[in-house]
Structures are given as structure tokens and as C-alpha cells.
Specification:
The complex is a heterodimer of chains A (330) and B (343). With 330 residues, chain A is α/β, with parallel strands linked by helices. Helices cover 43% and strands 12% of the residues of chain A. The longest helix of chain A is centred in the N-terminal third of the chain and has 24 residues. In chain B, helix 9 links the parallel strand 13 and strand 14. Classes of the chains: A alpha/beta (330), B alpha/beta (343).
Chain lengths: 330, 343
Amino acid sequence: MTPSSSYLDSSAWNELFRKMLKIRLAESRVAEIYPTDKIQSPVHLSLGQEAIAAGVCHALRPDDHIYGTYRGHGIFIAKGGDLKKAFAELYAKNTGCCRGKGGSMHYVAPEVGLMGCSAIVASTIPVAVGDAFAAKYLGLDRVTVAFFGDGAVGEGVFFESLNFAALKQVPVIFVLENNNYAVHSCVKERHKVTELYKFGEGLGIKGIRTDGFDVANVYANMREAVQTVRGGGSPMVLEFMTHRWAEHVGPGADHNEKYRDRALLNLAIERDSIQMAKNTMKRGLGFSDDDFLRIENELKAEIDEAVGFAEKSPIPDKKELYEGLFKERI
Amino acid sequence: MSVINYGYALAQGLIQSMERDPNVFVFGLGADDHKELFGSVKGVLERFGPKRCFDTAIAENGMTGVAVGAAIAGLKPVHVHIRADFLYLALDQILNLAAKWRYMFGGQMNVPIVIRAVIGRSWGQGAQHSQSLQSFFMHVPGVKLVMPTTAYDAKGYLTAAIADPNPVVMIEHRILYYINDEVPDEYYELPFGKAYVRKQGGDVTIVANSYMVTEALKAADFLEKQGIYVEVVDPVSLVPLDEETILDSVKKTGKLLIVDCDWATCGVSAEIAAIVAEKGFGSLKQPIQRMGSAHVPCPVSKNLEDEFYPNARKIVWKVYEMLGKDLPKEDVPLLTHQFKGPF
């Protein structure tokens, strides 16, 4: 499938670009702050993978639901989550998106459709399927997206979820961000068949593999999948090929470690999503370096404000330790 | 009021809950088949159709995840398991997700799922068809846990579990399915966190749950004839647990025996013993005693299986030991309920 991206107009490009750059700048800021130990939570950065979060979420409606993983900063931002709550959560403050109880691995923003992120690999895949099942049961026309990485396809629950989704034809899209590494194990060390998008075929789930660096390509493929699925079509697997710039967990890079493939890094540098978007926007849509600088400054100001908010926010009161385990019946 | 068995009481509670709330549905392996999960889903498919009552692949963890997602998105799933042993496969979704979803996300979401699981016993169910997993759900915070003993409990706690906004695990004993009880015809709910004194007595407190309550009551009847009066306390709701009723009983008797239909090691009986030791030590006249399954996998041979489980006779012997009395000449009749047949 190679849907045309020519329908992307200047404002769509602007929005996609802003989403990607916001993720890039916000996470770069996280990496910058990290050595100060103000962020006392493991961080799994999605630097290098921004185009997937941005392109996928741009194709969704605000009421569509998404579920993610411990690498969830990007989708939180792309789905429209409040950046102040995101930074406050990293600082484990009371004003964070989980009131300081979730941390970096458990971002949530139900007000914009991010229904939860889990640190157990593959665990939100069946949850997304159940959410989509509910939408169909209730007669709602929203779609649900399960974001997960290539590591997740090794879990049995991935198979179980795809089977149920196919059987019940629920409106779910499986977005597989293939960055080639499950922590430090590369795909070919884990699977005989490395075309992961094919894993659902035997179950009746169509899959495609496509480039995850070009945001227009991500968006175009996702847009088409959403049209199919929202219209009552079969669920799909979209495998986006990408590259994680940072180490699995933590703010640093680990490109010199033995497990890394230098060729993949070179490809990722060559296909930097943000630089590619800039080139396209300059070439065809009349954006200038000044425009990019202005956008960058606006986003940096927003990030400054969010960091300031996090710094100033109160920590959770000790009495909150026992709050929120069970919901009282009304 | 009708006299019905445990399974039909569950079916009645489920049907009435489904009538009240169109978002309640039941699913799981065998949820819609002719065996009707021992009668506990009888009539549900006919009444509500396959949208609200359906079978699944054998995929316990994935299907539990589906229940979690459906609950997050506004439905009220009742997920059924013919054997509790298979819950081990679903522990990731129950304990890592459902139990933590509300707290981990700062109290802004909730996961109203009900998980029903049946403990097998009899007819050589063996090591992997006879386990009960209550200790896991009592240990990990975030899941409510009930073990209904009577048909009256079964209906009232199933309706309460479905109406509850939190994850609830309900563990049912296969043998209890054959016991009839008076059950109100209309919809009712029973409260979590309330223990029941099944029999009053002043000599020894026996805290028992699920099927062990019926064994404890048989023991109590025998002991009564010998002039020994035990008090049988049935927590039913293990999370939340009614500590007060247990502590009050121990205050009265000064002697405590806990009988759980599970292994004792790190089990529910260990927890109850610890609570009483911490909060009721002054009431105790002698060390707390516990009885549970032998600490080995459940064997098939009837001879070994009888040795494996606590029963009324062993409870009687233990009570005599606790009271420092010689055993009576009369033997304790063992009328253990059993089911026959392959399933």
C-alpha cells in the first residue's frame, strides 16, 4: 500500500511538524534534566521515532482511544495531552497526569483519548482490543489503537489479542513500532520470520510494513487504515520501521554498544523525520528557516512553562499513599 | 424465596444484573455451551443472545485483557473460568493491570470487571484441576475477593460484584454447587467486608472459608453432641476482610483454628493468623492453629486425596487437641460431598 500524501496541505504539514518537534524538544529536555535527578523515574525515550506518534495520532479523532507502552511520551504529546501534566508526572508531583503515582512509564490522558500506558510488554494490546470491543458493543464509531514495539510480538498475548480482534471484527488498529530492538535483543535473534506484520495473517489480520521515518507516509497509511476500520472493516497491523536513538532506558545514547547495527543508525540519521519534513515543507510549501525557528521557539517556550510548572508543583501529601486504590460506589 | 442450588442462584443473579444493566456481558470458555458452567449461566444465552453471552478461545490472559479494556471503555464484563487453575495464566492482566489501573493512574480510572473461577475437587481432578488461588488476590492490592459459601451468598455477592466499580475475583467451590439454600427470587446484593457467624459457640473459634465452612459445620455438629461448642466464622469477603467479627469471636473463645481450602503456607490462613496475633494477642489463651491442604500438589488416588484435604474428622481431632482432651470413642462420620463423572 502506498497511499498518496499529496493531499497534505500546508496546515496539515505544520501540525505534523509541530507534533514531531514537540516530542523531540520535550524529550531532549528530559535528557538534559535527567542528570540533575529531579526526574526520579526511569525514562524510555522515543527520540528518533517521533514520526509514528505524530502521523498516527494526526489521523485520529479526539474521541478515538489509544493505548501505549512505557515508551509513551511521544503518543501522550501527539494525542494532545497537557505538557504541564507530563512534566509534572516526571517530577512525580501532585499535578502530574497520574498525581505522581505513575511516572514516566504510565502516562495517561483520558480527556484526549490516551487511556493508559503499561510497563509490561504487550499487556495493553488486549486491553485496546477490549476497548474496541466496547465501542462496537455500544454502537460507537470510534477506533482504538494499540501502540507496541517489536519486542511485544514475542508475547503470547499478542497472538491472543489479534485472534479475538479478527474473530469479533472490532475496530482496532495495531501499530507496531519496529525499532529492531527488544531492550538489547535484535529481531533476528528472536524470530525466524522477521517480517512481523505477517504474524497476524494466519489469524485473518491484514498487515503492512512501511517506512516510519517519513511522517507523511505514516499519516497516509494510518489515514487509510482508519477509514477501513472505522467503516466496519477488519482490524489491521501497521508495522512502521524506525530507529531508537537513545538507549533502551535512560537519557543517553548507546550506539557504540555491540548490540547496535551501525548501518541502521546511518539510515536513521539520513532519514531523520524532522529534517525530512523540513525539506519537504521548504521545497513545496514555502516554509522558511525563519518559520522553523519561530515554531521551535514557541515550542521551547511551552516546554519551559511546563518544566517551570513541574518544578513549582507540590509533591503528593503522605496521606495520599492510601488513596485511589478502590473506587467508592456512588 | 425459592430453594435452589448454588449454580442456579448464580445464574439468577447474573440474569437479574444483566436485566438491570445492558452493559453487563458474560464470556469465557464454555460460557454459552450446553454444560452451562454447572448451571451458573443457565438461560443467559437464550435470554440475552450471543452479543452478551459468548465463548472464547482458550486464551486466559488475552481474554482478561479484553475484559479490562471493555471495562475501561464502559462495559461490565463477567469473565468465567471453569477451573481456577487457569487463572495462573491470567495473573498478568489481573494483577499487573486490573489491580493497578486505578491507583497507578492517580485514581482517575476504574476497571469494573468480575472474574468467576471454580475450584475443582473430587473424581481425581488432580494437581492442575483442584487449586484455589485466593492467596494471590489477597496478597496483591487492588482486587476485591469473595468466596461465597451458600447459594444465598453466591447470588448476593455476584450481583454486588457486578455492581461494584472495581475488579472483583469470585472463587467458587465445585462441591458447593450441589447444596441447596433458600434464595430470594428478587434482586439483592450482599455487602463486601462483612463476615458471617455460621454457628455460635464459646469454646473455640473456627475461621473457615468456602467449602471448608461446610466441613467445619459438620465438625461443629459432632462436637456439640460431645458438649463442645465451637463458633464458625466465615469471612466470605476476603478483600475487604471483616477483621472485627473474627477478633470479637477470638475475644470470646480465646482459641483460634483457621481452616482454608488452600495451602497454609503464605496463604489466607497465614494472613488471618497474623492479624489475630497482631491485634488480638491478648485474647489468645494458646497458639493459633491452622489447617490447609497438605503442602504438595493434589494427588489423584482417593486414599492420598483424603489425606491431602482437611475434613470434618480432622477438624474434630484438632479441636480435641486444642482443648487438651482425649478423642471420643465415637468416630466422626465423613459425609463429604463428591461429584462423579469426567467433569
